[in-house]
Amino acid sequence: MIVDVTLQRGPRRPKTISDFRAVLSTAFNQGHSPRHQPKSRAQLVLLRRSGTRKIVNEDEVRREAEEVGFDVVVIDPKRETPTREIFKLLDGSHALVGAHSAGLTHVLFMRSASVFMQVVPLRCAWPADICYGKLSIRLGLEYIVYDIQVHESNLGEKLARECLEPHDPGLVMGNLSNWNMYMNQDIKIDLDR
């Protein structure tokens, strides 16, 4: 998620990821007014996953966020979901929460100074940081990492504790079967944490 100006042509090329975000804003707001009307409560978007790395207690997480003062919108973007629709929702929101996945690419649609919380599965800290952590900081977002604990992963029921700690990305990245195993875990967020 970088902009390489050496691969671009023309005088109006984006030089940074923030410039690229501005291009998206211009494209998706064309003919429409931006959704920056004041809201009585901050809006939080909870990104749903329906495969692996899903948050299995999503309803509880949503209720907890509502109790602390957010209007919560749960989205499950599909291939046929219009990109403009997702852009407008995120551009008008204050926060995005989701488990590490390709769907978090939508963080590009968040306005600067919005909050992005990435829920990071066990042993996935390195790809989470490379894919979305550094990107969100370059976009000017408030970035929060929620590294799950062993008891929040369904892998805790399947693997010996020494296979889950310490978080050594070398053990994951060096072995494709390990990588697939860690990318296939589900998460139950500990709401007390």
What's this entry about, in short?
This protein is α/β, with parallel strands linked by helices. It has helices spanning 17-29, 58-67, 83-91, 125-138, 169-173, 176-183, and strands at residues 42-47, 70-75, 95-99, 115-120, 142-147. The longest helix is centred in the C-terminal third of the chain and has 14 residues, at 125-138.
List its traits:
15% strand, 193 residues, globular, 6 helices, alpha/beta, single chain
Principal-axis shape = globular
* Averaged pLDDT: 85
What is the tally of helical segments? 6
Number of strands: 5
Radius of gyration of CA atoms, rounded to a whole number: 18 Å
Taking strands numbered 1, 2, ... along the chain, how are they ordered across the largest sheet?
Answer: 2-1-3-4-5
Unreliable parts: none
Helix/strand/pairing class, anyone? alpha/beta
Order of helices and strands: HEHEHEEHEHH
Give the termini separation: 31 Å
Strand content: 15-25%
Main sheet characteristics? 5 strands, parallel
- Helical amount: 25-40%
GO cellular component, one term: Golgi membrane
Membrane topology: Single-pass type II membrane protein
GO molecular function, one term: pentosyltransferase activity
Keywords: Glycoprotein, Glycosyltransferase, Transferase
Give a description of the structure.
The chain is of the alpha/beta class and 193 residues long. The protein has a domain of 131 residues. The chain is built from 6 helices and 5 strands. A 5-stranded parallel sheet has the order 2-1-3-4-5, with helices on both faces. Strand 4, helix 4 and strand 5 form a beta-alpha-beta unit. The protein is globular, with a radius of gyration of 18 Å. The model has no long low-confidence stretch (mean pLDDT 85).
